[in-house]
Specification:
Layout lengths: L5 E5 L4 H14 L5 E5 L13 H18 L5 E12 L2 E11 L4 E5 L3 E2 L2 H8 L4 H9 L9 H6 L6 H12 L1 H4 L1 H4 L2
């Protein structure tokens, strides 16, 4: 075990994203101790990214901005949730980008389709979390189970959805010799 705690900076203060990052790191590097800090940095994309490309760019921007804010960290994590129209329906997902000192990993979460009432509000310009709160009469659902938690009756939470993408984004860190360029 590396006795020195590794510092992870998550480019969000949302407790769901911070906890997903910590859980993902702990699963992938169980003998390592981590200190995780959530900070607020701009994504430099719309509050509700409307395409896969914009969502990935938001995660990349968040990592870069977190790195500038905390250059001495060991890892920087960007988690950006987005939506995209697929065959006339609105799908939602997140991109996770993790940067280390010399390598970067990227992964996308699972994808699911939003109910028409929620999709309509998002397409009218409301952020997904606010649309969920309005349709499902919730308060700050994006810092709890999120849309997936509500729609699955808690069988799957936003944290679990993001945690899996964190695990996938960490693959290059566990197999550095295979991913090195």
């Amino acid at each position: 075990m590396d006795t020195k705690e590794k510092s992870v900076v998550v480019s969000s203060t949302n407790p769901v994203k911070v906890q997903a990052a910590l859980s993902g790191f702990e699963r992938m590097m169980p003998s390592q101790a981590f200190t995780v800090t959530g900070i607020s940095v701009p994504s430099e994309v719309a509050d509700q990214p409307m395409t896969e490309e914009e969502t990935l760019q938001g995660a990349l921007n968040r990592v870069q901005n977190a790195r500038v804010a905390h250059p001495s960290a060991d890892y920087w994590v960007g988690i950006e949730g987005g939506v995209e129209v697929v065959q006339g329906e609105l799908a939602t997902f997140a991109w996770v980008v993790i940067a280390g000192q010399s390598i970067e990993g990227k992964a996308r979460s699972g994808t699911f389709f939003l109910p028409p009432a929620v999709a309509e509000l998002v397409q009218q310009g409301l952020e997904l979390g606010s649309a969920n709160d309005q349709i499902f009469r919730q308060l700050n659902s994006k810092q709890k189970g999120g849309a997936i938690g509500i729609l699955s009756n808690g069988a799957l939470t936003r944290k679990e959805l993001y945690e899996q993408a964190v695990v996938l984004a960490l693959l290059p860190f566990l197999q550095e010799e295979l991913y090195a360029r």
